[in-house]
Amino acid sequence: MVDFRNVKYDPAYTLKEISAAITRDPQNATHYFKRAQYYQEAKNNKNALKDIEQAIKLDEERGEYHFRKAQILRDMSNYPAALTAAIQAEDLNYRSTDLDILLGELYLFSKKYEFALQYLNDAQEETPENEYIYFYRGLAYAHTSDSVAAIRNFKSAIRRAPDLIEAYNQLIKIYLNQKEDVQAWSYLRAGLKQDSTNAYLWYYAGEHYNNREQADSAYFSYKNAVKYDSLLYLAHHKLALLAFDKNNYSEAAAEMEKAMKFLKKLPQAHMILGESYEKLGELDKALPHYQWVYTREPQNIKAMWGVRRTMYRLYKLKRDSLRLDEKKKRDSLLAIFRQGQS
């Protein structure tokens, strides 16, 4: 007799069995649906999508299949296609709280906030303890400028899931925008206790200290932010500004360059780079940034003088270099002449 307490669950074996079932009965949509589930759980979304589409091809009237397809597409960040699949599931009378939450989330990504709230409210009536319902509602209210409702929902999400860090981030962001630093700091501390490696929490800590003109603490916080997420351009931008204010032009240029992919249309960023490179004597790097600003803002006196100053200095360097080359040539010819005279 088999002792099931000693039998280990083997996903690979189960997947093998389902694949064998598909080989035996390739027209059975249920087998493809089950294998799509396994692939999705294994984060193999490409194969999961392939199988769920085959299941739908064999039985297109099953709303559950379209719901699974929507989940897979959402995991692949293909939100428009995911929304289409989720709507199809609903049209086929598939009903579940998870579908309502998914539709709420996808309408949120589509910036259709009223539709998002409608589905999230329906989900809340069915499962009032699901933290993501409140989190997504908070996002929807925040985007419609209803900060009071947004705050209420983010707090509700945190009460139900104290480790939902993104709810802290959104709540802190609102409080900082409202200049409510005491409230922001309270949730910053609570959030960092939950996750001390969250880059956005450290970024918002930097914003908190910046508001209080505590530059050293702000610098430390922004440094932690980029330590935990090197691609967080907002923190690189703030580090560049702090370094520039301290005349640390090398660091200012290095940090701003890391942020420029997202700030290339911001005149201030180009001016920081122009001035920093000029101070470092890298005139060929400084000039394009001054020119970028001056071309778009002809009234910008600082940019105008930056262009004139760097162009003149580059001209002077080139002129002096040519003069030096000419002097070397003359000295060389003179040396040859003197050797011939001796």
From TrEMBL:
Keywords linked to the UniProt accession: Coiled coil, TPR repeat
Presence of the UniProt keyword Nucleus in the record: no
Residue ranges of coiled coil: 35-62
Domain of life: Bacteria
SMART domains the UniProt entry points to: TPR
UniProt keyword Coiled coil, yes or no: yes
TPR repeats: 29-62, 97-130, 131-164, 267-300
UniProt-listed PROSITE patterns: TPR
InterPro entries per record: TPR-like_helical_dom_sf (IPR011990), TPR_rpt (IPR019734)
Protein name, as recorded: Uncharacterized protein
Gene source species: Adhaeribacter pallidiroseus
